[in-house]
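Researcher: Structure for this, please.
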Amino acid sequence: MSVMLHSIFLHLRKIRRMSGVRDGKMRVVQLEWVFNWLAFFTARLGCHVLITYKLIRDAHKFERGVALPLALTGMAGMNLLNFFLGRDLLKAYRREQAQETHHTTQTQSERETYQGLKASDIQPAMTPVLPVRR
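Model: Predicted structure, token format:
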């Protein structure tokens, strides 16, 4: 359940960026990152490390068979995925902090130019036409 809470913050970040709110100095963006990191460390790292520790500690309670190796392999995989997620989250945080300084160096005319664009103003990329088989 706690992992789902972190997923909410990841989706909130995606929606925020899609809506154009990218200024790292805004209070709402800073608050969102605080909640994102708190949820990541408690849900993704804390819980999964504790579950892995509990599996190893209670290994004697498992009967001989595939249950313990399967559980340990699954938790190792989850911990590896969480490591990569944390690394990507750190990259995103650093990139967003670096973009903040880039956005502040734009001139007013550059901002007006980018804000005035519509989806219909952008030329679509050339896509190859595939022959129709009959």
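Researcher: Any notable elements?
Model: The chain has a mean pLDDT of 79. The two ends are 52 Å apart (CA to CA).
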